[in-house]
Amino acid sequence: MSEADEYLLTGPFRMDLPSFRSIGVSKPLSETSRKGYLAAVSASSYSFISLLRHFLPIINPGGATISLTYIASERIIPGYGGGMSSAKAALESDTRVLAFEAGRKHKVRVNTISAGPLGSRAAKAIGFIDMMINYSLENAPLQKELYAEEVGNTAAFLASTLASAITGATVYVDNGLNAMGVGVDSPAFSGLDIPKDNKS
Q1: Is the pLDDT of residue 147 over 50?
Q2: How far apart are CA 19 and CA 121, in angstroms?
Q3: Cα(first)–Cα(last) distance of the chain, in Å?
Q4: How far from the centroid of its chain's Cα atoms is residue 153's Cα?
């Protein structure tokens, strides 16, 4: 365990969040217990409020905070259950409210990044991330794998002075998948001449 990990687990800002598996992320929303639902909201939404409540007073004016969300906040993603979609919707709403409050009181920006499917440790807990990655490759405007570095580059931009006028935003880093209304790999579209990446 690193010194930073030990500090987060035992220090004054101890982070004692449930794992995605313990929340029951694979359960349908209609089968989610109150405890599981509240655990999801606590882990994926309130944790950001708590973080800002403790750290906003010591962040320099002009600073920025960033969270991570997911498109299940506004679209149905079967299998992304246990209240996690609701928690991400809450996080995005909280981002807008916190942007107003932090901006007015502390001159600090608050944004969230909606990352597309990538094989992170948290995503693997859902259990079907490989299917989501394949779906994105087939249906996103940019037919390429999404890399963690691309999400990190966006976070670096949002944290920098280059983004000094951006706050309260949900920024999509998903190869454009969020713009799609339908999955073009559906058999229903087999007769259409849909552009494909020639390098595939």
Answers
A1: yes
A2: 11
A3: 41
A4: 15
